[in-house]
Design goal:
Radius of gyration: 14 Å
Strand order of the largest sheet: 1-4-3-2
Number of strands: 8
Helix content: 25-40%
CATH class: Alpha Beta
Length: 121
């Protein structure tokens, strides 16, 4: 499992499942616990949508966001296709996909306090 700090785990759960297409792995709303997984790898890594109520976590998340750095990178098969799909769903990207020696990538705002990069080799 890995985690990403979010402003509101329930709101993040809605975005990550309804917009990004992740599946529910484990949810306990009363405990503010939301974990999602990739539908492409159902036994793979779970993503904990972790509350940022700790001042250290909040400072880190806000600092990384303010610097324009992605908090997490998701590998995809086709960045251009994902960009088109997510843009049509209302996702706000910081720019169009770019290609460099590392591959093709694009960065979007997850509406939960993070920038997220999608990457294709």
């Amino acid at each position: 499992m890995c985690s990403i700090h979010v402003n509101d785990p329930a709101q993040a759960f809605a975005f990550y499942t309804q917009i990004l297409g992740f599946d529910e792995l484990f949810v306990i709303p009363d405990a503010n616990l939301y974990i999602v997984k990739s539908p492409e790898d159902p036994v793979g890594v779970g993503l904990l949508l972790e509350p940022s109520d700790n001042p250290i976590a909040r400072a880190y998340k806000e600092g990384v966001y303010g610097a324009g750095m992605p908090t997490i990178v998701f590998g995809v098969k086709d960045v251009q296709a994902e960009y088109a799909t997510l843009t049509s769903a209302g996702v706000r990207f910081t720019g169009e996909p770019t290609v460099d020696e590392a591959g093709t990538h694009a960065v979007f705002d997850d509406t939960c306090g993070n920038l997220v990069q999608i990457h294709q080799d």
